[in-house]
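Problem: given the chain below (105 residues), write out its structure.
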Amino acid sequence: MARDAWPEQSVADPRFVVLAIALTSCAPGPDAQRHLPDASGHIAGFWLGLWHGIIAPVTFFISLFKNSVNIYEVHNKGNWYNFGFVLGAGILFGGGAAGSRKRKS
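Solution.
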């Protein structure tokens, strides 16, 4: 009996389907409040992003108990705020320097 090039039943691997759904569900949407000032007229920039990145673990813990506290400022200047936030979080956790230290034997 000859083997066909295509199997009779084409079923996707369930692990692939779950992975695809998980990855696409994490995709961020547009930030409609970017470049718009908050109620006090401020727009968060690089320096505030840096500060928010440094205090992110503390802010996350507080945000679990208070609805008025957010980790990320949505009224921001865009890429500069994002860069500051990531840099601040990297500074807090040691960045790449922690992985390059020699280990004592």
